[in-house]
Design a protein that fits this description.
The complex is a heterodimer of chains A (291) and B (198). In chain A, α4 (79-115) runs antiparallel to α10. Chain A is mostly helical and 291 residues long. Chain A has helices at 5-9, 11-15, 23-48, 79-115, 117-132, 135-145, 149-160, 163-178, 180-187, 192-228, 240-251, 257-284. Chain A contains twelve helices and no strands. Chain B has a single domain (2-196), classed as Rossmann fold (3-Layer(aba) Sandwich), CATH 3.40.50.300. Chain B has helices at 42-49, 92-98, 104-109, 126-137, 156-172, 184-190; strands spanning 2-9, 19-26, 31-35, 57-62, 65-66, 75-78, 144-148, 176-181, 193-196. The chains are: A mainly alpha (291), B alpha/beta (198). Chain A binds chain B through residues 179-181, 183-185, 187-191, 199, 202-203, 286-287, and chain B through 50-52, 70-73, 76-77, 79, 81, 84-89, 98-100, 120, 122, 136, 139, 141.
């Protein structure tokens, strides 16, 4: 019943080959939306410039208005531009740390599965140990040991985020290696390299991509968390963690917009990455990619 | 002649033997049945002969030569579950191409429709997939075919269709065949002789 409806009710969308009743189109639309949101957050600072970051003591502590959608802080700075600047920095840091972390995960995961034996046992043990430690504690320890600052922050996040993806990719390679169709492929005369290129890679790449996208929100939240605790970025940089940590002091004074609105935008960015990851996964899986 | 001599197999020294001192010979264009209850090593025999497992002791030879470690294997195995024997990310065309493009007569004999070629593997039924798997395994290099419960999960019509096509092809191309099954009536019908494993 539902199938024939849109064609009659809305012939235009049918003509364009794009209908919201189609799951594939909906997924593509979601991906596009997420990319737009994230693009704006990443590059928004280039559009709005440094204007709102200046101190304007005449307009201190103003609640949200049309001129200042997120209000102003205790120094009269526009919270909207500060949030965009902070989030942009956080996203770039997230992008960098998540990418490096994911590449480490790919290398370690596939190595572990292909070499097997003692190497595999050692890597599995290392992953188990690292995962059994409380995440935030480990990050703080590494950041502290590396001397804090931007370098400590990047190192801490990179070192603590590759484990679960590495474990996933290792399991995938192991499963593929022992699967009937990979074994059969070699009996049909295919070389190990051909099998890696045609059977393993096309299967691992989507997993890697989704894993990478789902690492972003973690990395961003931990960056914000670490900075919030005072171990991350220096206070003069408008990072989202610093904004939140400074704003907490003003919550009791009734300046709710200082913490709530940047927090909501941070959550939105994280959620956008999450939806993006799930959508890409749905699109790349042949069982859900169509219809 | 496909020969398995003194075949013994266990997964590790801590495990008990799956198979001990098993001998088997299959001549070209001979169809041999392997009958036995579950868990008696029928599938292990099939996997040893096709090179999927290495025997703990004993040897497998084809025309006096050990099984090749690289290149197309002259002994091909057809699995019970075709959906596990195909890359789920491939279309049927790619799956068939992996078997070095089987003969068109064989595709016709197995009633493989050309419209299936552009489908994903999960869009075909078990019977349809098994026909694709059989076509893939019966390529120009195949001298011996091992059918491990090849039609056990299929309906009677599809079973008859597959066996008809396979038996015709095997006789024409003088391919030796080992049919592994726990169904005595089926083996009595298609095989020249039957080995009981116990």
């Amino acid at each position: 019943m539902k199938l024939s409806m849109p064609a009659i009710a809305n012939p235009r969308s049918r003509l364009q080959g794009f209908s919201l009743n189609n799951r594939r189109s909906r997924t593509l639309l979601l991906i596009a939306l997420c990319l737009v949101v994230l693009g704006v957050l990443l590059l928004g600072t280039y559009l709005i410039g440094q204007a709102g970051l200046d101190i304007a003591l005449s307009s201190r502590n103003q609640p949200p208005s049309f001129a200042h959608p997120f209000g102003t802080d205790w120094l009269g700075r526009d919270m909207f531009s500060r949030t965009l600047h902070g989030l942009s920095l956080s996203l770039w840091i997230g992008l960098l740390t998540a990418s490096v972390s994911a590449v480490i995960a790919l290398a370690i995961g596939t190595l572990s599965a292909t070499l097997g034996g003692k190497v595999d046992a050692a890597i599995t043990w290392l992953i188990d140990v690292a995962l059994s430690l409380p995440h935030l504690v480990l990050i703080i320890l590494v950041a502290f040991a590396a001397g804090g600052g931007v370098r400590g922050l990047l190192l801490a996040i990179i070192i603590t985020h590759w484990m679960s993806l590495a474990r996933l990719l290792r399991a995938e390679v192991l499963q593929l290696k022992s699967s009937d169709y990979v074994q059969l492929s070699s009996k049909l005369g295919r070389s190990p390299l051909w099998i890696a290129r045609h059977h393993l890679l096309p299967h691992l790449l989507p997993q890697f991509l989704v894993g990478l996208i789902l690492l972003f929100p973690h990395a961003i939240l931990h960056e914000a968390g670490l900075t919030f605790l005072g171990l991350g970025l220096p206070p003069e940089i408008p990072a989202i963690g610093i904004i939140l940590s400074e704003s907490m002091r003003y919550l009791s004074a009734g300046y709710w917009w200082l913490a709530v609105l940047p927090g909501v935008v941070l959550l939105m960015a994280v959620q956008a990455f999450d939806i993006l990851g799930q959508s890409v996964r749905a699109l790349l899986d042949p069982k859900t990619s169509q219809g | 002649m496909l020969k398995g001599e003194q075949l013994s197999f266990r997964y590790s020294p801590h495990h008990s033997w799956v198979l001990q001192d098993f001998n088997i010979q299959i001549a070209p264009s001979e169809i041999v049945g392997l009958l036995g209850p579950s868990g008696f090593g029928k599938t292990t025999v099939g996997k040893l002969l096709a090179g999927y497992l290495a025997p703990t002791s004993g040897s497998v030879t084809v025309e006096g030569q050990p099984l090749p470690t690289r290149g197309s294997c002259p002994v091909q195995l057809v699995f019970q579950h075709p959906e596990l024997a195909m890359n789920p990310r491939w279309r049927i065309r790619q799956v068939l191409a992996e078997g070095q493009s089987p003969a068109p007569e064989l595709l016709q004999a197995l009633s493989i429709d050309s419209s299936w070629l552009s489908r994903w593997t999960h869009e075909l039924s078990g019977g349809e997939l098994q026909r694709i798997a059989v076509a893939r395994s019966l390529n120009a290099h195949t001298r011996y075919l091992i059918a491990d419960e090849m039609t056990a999960m299929l309906d009677a019509n599809t079973q008859a269709l597959i066996w008809q096509a396979v038996l015709d092809y095997v006789r024409q191309h003088e391919i030796g065949m080992l049919v592994i099954s726990h169904e005595a009536p089926l083996l009595k019908r298609v095989c020249d002789r039957i080995i009981h494993i116990e």
